[in-house]
Amino acid sequence: MKHFADLSEREVLAVAIASEEEDGRIYMTFAEDLKERYPDTAKVFEAMADEERGHRHRLLETYEQRFGQHLPPIRREDVNGLPRRRPVWLLKNLPLDTIRKEVEQMEQQAGDFYARAARQAEDVGLRRLLGDLAEEEKGHKDLAVKLKDEHLTEEARGKEDKTSRRTFVLQYVQPGLAGLMDGSVSTLAPLFAAAFATHHNWQTFVVGLAASLGAGISMAFAEALSDDGSVTGRGSPWLRGGICGAMTAIGGLGHSIPYLVPDSWANAFWIATSIAGAVVFFELWAIAFIRARYMDTPFLKAAFQVVLGGVIVLAVGIAIGSS
Predict the structure, then answer these.
(1) pLDDT for res 248
(2) Residue 107: phi, psi to the nearest 5?
(3) CA dist 238 to 60, 179, 228, Å?
(4) What are the C-alpha distances in Å from 264 to residues 200, 201, 271, 287?
(5) What is the mean pLDDT of residues 166-193?
(6) How far apart are CA 287 and CA 277, in angstroms?
(7) What's the longest Cα–Cα distance across the chain?
(8) How deeply is 250 buried, as exposed, middle or buried, from its count of CB atoms within 10 A (0-12, 13-18, 19+)?
(9) What is the pLDDT of residues 221-268, one digit of tens each?
(10) Is the pTM of this model over 0.70?
(11) How many CB atoms lie within 10 A of CB 8?
(12) 80: which strand partners?
């Protein structure tokens, strides 16, 4: 990789041209990705892509006047210290706020590049062009605000807020809730079966730990492999899988950890079981609250469904362990 200070003015212009082309394509990719979910915001990114094309044409005119038709094959990835853009497939189906933050960072980095290049340029005309572009890139944040105000009416913002909430539910809440329900409910039977079969806390904890981690790994892969998010808009499968797996393990470990109460304590088994039962109660009510909050399910209905299912599984585990 070349050091920035070692770049010739020809190479600086070539890097700038390639960077503007890439950034313009990224903005158009954002616009295409957001067109169905956030059509008004997509217009903002289309306008920003037009701005990048304008910068590219100015840079190309200056380059052609000074160095001719041939562009050297150099990009910012070839220069030490210049930031690289994330691959566009990693930016697909991101939450809207994340995309906006990504764009702000892109514009800040572009402004820093032009300011640094302007300080290094010896040609007066090139120095003026790079300095102007530095100011324009830093002013793009204000442009984004202006374009947002122009394209995003109050009605459009309301629609986009609803879409944003739906995306958040699909990408984060739903896999997390599925994991928490599976971890909290499905591990009840093996945990309490082991507890009432052995009346030993440590053995019960080992069973609960194995069940929780095993269920977490299984749910993580099941969620990640069930849907790549390209059609449904549910986001990165690995992110969803990680959330689902983690919440599954947490749900199971919550009522397994009380069985770390040492067996040497008086009434250790009943102390641990009482704490575990209280934890189960709070887990089930937390699930009911999340369903009511994000899934538009009436709280009492959600509580009845979740608590009923949990009680049945708990009773099955106790019955098997006591037999």
Answers:
(1) 93
(2) -65, -40
(3) 41, 14, 9
(4) 10, 10, 12, 34
(5) 86
(6) 15
(7) 90
(8) middle
(9) 988 887 766 555 666 788 889 999 999 999 999 999 999 999 888 889
(10) no
(11) 12
(12) 3
Q: What is the pLDDT of residue 90?
A: 64
Q: Residue 223 has which token pair? A: 């969620």
Q: For residue 79, give the H/E element and its range.
A: strand 79-80
Higher pLDDT, 128 or 167: 128
Distance in angstroms (rounded) separating the CA atoms of residues 222 and 12: 48
What separation in angstroms does the CA of 94 have from each of 43, 84, 198? Answer: 17, 19, 49
- In terms of Cα–Cα distance, which of 170, 157, 148 is closest to 104? 148
* Chain-centre distance for alpha carbon 151: 26
Residue 130 has pLDDT above 80, yes or no: yes
The per-residue pLDDT for range 49-91, each reduced to its tens digit, is: 998 999 999 999 999 999 998 988 888 888 887 878 877 666 6
Q: Which domains does the chain have, with CATH numbers?
A: 2-152 (1.20.1260.10), 158-322 (no CATH)
Question: Using an 8 Å Cβ cutoff, are 54 and 20 in contact?
Answer: no
295: tokens are 């899934």
pLDDT class of 122 with cuts at 50, 70, 90: confident
Residues 6+ apart with CB under 8 A from 272: 195, 201, 204, 258, 259, 260, 261
Report which residue type is found at 258: P
